[in-house]
Amino acid sequence: MKARAFSYHRAHSVDDAREAHARSGDDARYIAGGQSLVPALALRLQAPRILIDINHIEELRGVRCDGEWLRIGALTRHCEMLTDPLIAEFAPLLRAAAPFVAHPAIRNRGTLGGSVALADPASEFPAMMLALDAEIEIAGTSGRRRVRADDFFIDLFETAVGPGEIVTAILVPRFRCNQRICFDELARRRGDYALVGCGMLATCKDGLVETIRIAFFSVGNVPTRARSAEAVVSGARIDADRIVAAQAALDRDLAPPESDEVPPAMRLHLARVLLGRLLARMSEAA
Amino acid sequence: MNALTSLDRPNSYIGRSVPRPNAKRLLAGRGRYVTDIRLPRMLHAAFLRSPYAHARIISIDVDAARALAGVHLVATGADIARICAPWTGTLDHFKGMTSEPQLPLPLDRVVWAGQAVVAVVAESRALAEDALELISIGYEELPAVVDLDAARQPGTPRVNPSGTSNICFRTQLDSGGVDEAFASAAHVVEEEFSFGRHTPVTLEPRAIVADYDAESGSLTVHHATQTPYQFQDLYARHYGIPEARVRVIAPDIGGSFGMKLHVYHEDMAVVGLSILLARPVKYVADRIESFVSDIHARDHHVRARMAVDVEGKILAMDIHDATAIGAFSTYPRTSVVEGNQVVRLIGAPYDFKSYRAVLEVVFQNKVQTSQYRAVGHPIACAVTERMVDLAASQVGIDPFTMRARNVIADNAYPTASPTGYKFEALSHEICLQRLRGIMDYDALRTEQAELRQRGIHRGIGIATFVEITNPSPAFYGVGGARISSQDGATLSLTPSGEVRCAISVTEQGQGTEAIIGQIVADQLGVAQDHVKVITGDTEVTPHGGATWACRGAGIGGETALQAARRLKANILEIAGLILQEQPSALDIIDGQVVGVATGQLRLPVAEIARIAYFRSDTLPPGTQAQLTVSHHFAPQGYPFAFTNGIQGCYLEVDVHTGFIKLLKHYVVEDCGRIINPMLVDEQLRGGVVQGLGAALFEECRYGETGQLLNGSLADYLVPMAMEMPDIIIDHVETPTADTILGAKGCGEAGTAAASACVLNAVNDALAPLAASINAIPITPARVLKALGRY
Amino acid sequence: MSSEIDDAEEAVRVRFTVNGRKVACEVAPRDTLVDCLRNALELTGTHAGCEMGACGACLVQLDGRAVHGCLMFAVQADGARIDTIEGLSESGAIADLQAEFHRRNALQCGFCTPGMLINAHELLSRLTEPSRAAIRDALSGNFCRCTGYEAIVDAIAAVADARAAKASQEGSPG
């Protein structure tokens, strides 16, 4: 398990990184936390000619408020999700999801931007982008652009990030006092990829859910919003009947693929159970 | 023998929880594992592996690989076959068993996905892997035999075309009276069980550095193994090197559990590569390679029937065990021992007469299975204990009551099992009582009932077990294997009065060196930190069986005890001459010779050593001080020292998700004389957790074409800290009378019954829902399926 | 084409501070940090168990945080501070943990132990009195095949208690 030989470039700015990528004839990989990339290289599943290290690009760091948005630099480590006061206050869903992301030492190194850019459908944070209605800032040839999470995830490990482009920041609408969050997942062991996981963000008024965004992971090729279930719950008081109806609606939202260990019907069942539990928690919070 | 049990006198180490002296190095990162070893001019090997489970090799093109800078050798099967004699994994006492001859690398056919085909030796592992990418092998794919049941069907493709079927071995046990017992029984219960393939997953992968010196014709192998002497013999015979010129050194070993005592094709190849190059060659299996080349274990389908009378007394058992072992039987211990132990251990704790079992061992196109911690025990125990619970439920009695009515009574020994195992003395009844106490069983049942009212489904499971330890030559020697059941020690009093003990049992972290030091210090009457224990080097210690089948304490410990007594007698003989006393009037306490009657200090042992080594002229003429003794001990009497115990498990099943939370685990165990209670407890805990991993998580999953689907540490789920419970342990001590020490083994007891306990507990939790589980591991998918949830 | 593309096999010089000492060594870009520590620097106390971040045997401290030595390349650590089991042992920073692991026999083969200690060290630097569940959670990425974990949890809990008791003694007025 030794990587194929590559050369290494430590980039000091986004432009520097992108230029190095272009020089390689696009036979390059950016490395941020590297917690998924390094094993792929060791297994020779990927073998770029050049590895471009973006860990030292200062402009990709930092968490700050930007108007109605919380701007989270792409290099923000998973462990910072657990400790950063701005994230706790303005993006508590990320704070809630963070303990479930792998293990402490992985969280010390892995980055939010890397996780979102990789778009592993079994990962927590990409799905939370959907629940949060976040926007992903991408540096490309024509400068920076922002892509809504709903438009970001295209297919398995395929996103709106084009060749040579870099995710520079995640922008999350600032959490408001009339909002509620819930997160949980069903993983065989602590830190494993979940059999199914779900996070949700509801905007409430007078004990009613005005709007809700429900996002699942580990249910298919991409992180997936449960729009039918959202419709069932939106504008309503969450009660037992409403929960059952939302669970039933999941049939229309999720179509888990075949897998040797978790048959699609089982995964759908687990998604319904998890949705039920989270909505029950949400009803107490609302 | 007060001397063995009293902890009051100085140097009474037997029975004391002494921390392991050799552990401090490991805590400081100062271990020296084979993976750490770097020798001058050392090269690194890597292997190209078969992508197919079964295929003919049509062509191998290695030219580009050979041309790569930094590559020293590219070797195919034919290259190594020229210098290595083939081996066959059969033993004579398994009548009729067959297996094909094996070579380090195949000549014309691959028989499992992951089998090593071509070796590259280069200046670094990375370069060797670069060269692997340049090799092209042409294959013609052959039909693969993957599934255990399919392998047994007539007309199935054969794993070995020269054979007549896929059967490796078949045997039958029949005590008689089985059909009659079933015909007259008040109740008959039946069940079919399936057990998933596991693999040991030692944290340090297999590692070997072979160093052949062409000038002297001698071979030194640094080998992460439990059994250096076995490998000294094998490397000598298969490579035609005189045994005395083969040295095998086993330094610190990063876990073994039975996995590192088998012959692996790559390891044998690496010795050949070093001979071909006359340079040191290192090979460390990476984790991906480990999953497809380390032995697997426990791939069994069992059909079981049990007949009981109206009171719940067991009358008979009828068993069919089919097990699949891969394409070859493993060398030199074979792959049939596991199945053999399954059919012989089933029912072992219980007093009944009529037993019948058929064992079928079949080949398939997967990596070999063989002995892994608690060989066969978990399967025998799970089958037996689930059947006992099913019978108890049929009769309408509590699982504890059922067992109390059926275990062999503590006063019934010596006796034998219906399968012919001879039991010297076991303690099932007292263990049952103790377990009931430490579990607070009645309170758990009350709590369980209350929680069920609230829709919380908890389960309580218990499992009685018998463990095989201290094997005599009946285990391997009689079958023709050159695997020793005796051990040897060389014990010296050093000139400064300290003690050096070189002994053939080996250390993999279980505390072998610690307990040997305790025994020697205790028996000699010196402080333990004045005893240095040396293990793991065939050049340094006498030949011996080393460490497997829970023999380190019982056989190695007795070897050390007897050697220490001989050395003590020799020391006191010299002391008697110096002090003008009868040796029998003298003793040694805390490094001082004392008068037995008076307890008065007479002479430091160090002074005896000084005189004997440097002033022998002051001793009476004709005196030859023997301050080094070499001593061997081979077990006699019972062929095995059986141990016993019982485990309990308390868990919660989430009936909506199929997830299981282990809440608490309990063990009552009887391993005879306990030398170091803390180390015994930790053997049990570690063993239990391996069994719990098996119960809930571990399974080598294969696709239809024989590809391992979860061959990485991210996909093969080992037990981790968060999911494991705390484990409460109690002991009963029934020493064996076959030795002075009285110790039996304890390393496999934890693993033997843990998965059976979980199986019973899960079924206990599911019982009100009319669902049952008969497969291990118990995954969420299996639980939900049993509950009809999807 | 840039020259860097052709340099894939060329060794590059990296400088870092390892266990408090400035070190320079030559590595190939593809050498992982754990391989560099073990081979070039002969710090073999850090072990490689899976080379994909699933076992925790290779944990080292990078700028004070526990990271997997198998999940980054040595070149990436240029300029960083790295502390391994050897350095933490020599400095005495984890002496109490090591002593308690020894007393409680919280190790058998010892292959996982350096990673366990690095992780425990980080846990106790962040949480002064972790619950048993919090300790188990923190160890969730460290595989031990020998002990069954309980002794390790016991040892870490005992050290946490002892440190807390010491801190409260020192904090309380004489």
From TrEMBL, chain A:
SUPFAM superfamilies: CO dehydrogenase flavoprotein C-terminal domain-like, FAD-binding/transporter-associated domain-like. InterPro entries: CO_DH_flav_C (IPR005107), CO_DH_flav_C_dom_sf (IPR036683), Diverse_Substr_Oxidored (IPR051312), FAD-bd_PCMH (IPR016166), FAD-bd_PCMH-like_sf (IPR036318), FAD-bd_PCMH_sub1 (IPR016167), FAD-bd_PCMH_sub2 (IPR016169), Mopterin_DH_FAD-bd (IPR002346). The keyword Oxidoreductase applies. Residues 1-177 form the FAD-binding PCMH-type domain. Keywords: FAD, Flavoprotein, Oxidoreductase. SMART domains: CO_deh_flav_C. This is Xanthine dehydrogenase family protein subunit M.
